[in-house]
Predict the 3D structure of the following.
Amino acid sequence: MATSATSIDLPRKTPFTVRDYRQMPEDGRRYEVIDGILLMAPAPNRYHQRISRNLCRIVYQFLHEHPIGEAYDAPFDVYFDDLNVVQPDLVFVANASREVLAPEGVVGAPDLVAEILSPGTSKRDLRDKRDLYAKSGVKEFWMLSPEEHQVQVYLPEVDRIKPARILAEGETLETPLLAGLKILVAELFEQ
């Protein structure tokens, strides 16, 4: 049975803020706030978690050998402004951008964000979060599609809506933000 991200129907006339978000109970649910709307998503499925583990293992190993910044995996809060806080699947902050790191997560734009698309959240990821990342100053973001075994690479300075590259199995994912890292797309989607 497919589940989807839902907005929380709370009786309120004002936008949901970061302050409200911080007062949410630690109840095991995954909440985000986008444009003042509180959203809840179901827990990711096993394949999503396997892809996340593959991606994180590769990036963490690279950063262990090349300490050029820090990476964090979900759940990890990224606060863009008072009406937007999200939990990407992977966040990278270069050493030159360390000022955005705070005890509560990232306050501002990380350099790189990765989202693994899920049936319940893909529309939100590909529209709302893509737009939020582009307008908030994220330099690069990746949308990993488990169904198609593809990675869409977005470079907002080039185009805020269309991916700069779409990589499939057999291709290699590289970014100047993690210079020297080469990720075989097929390795991300190994089961």
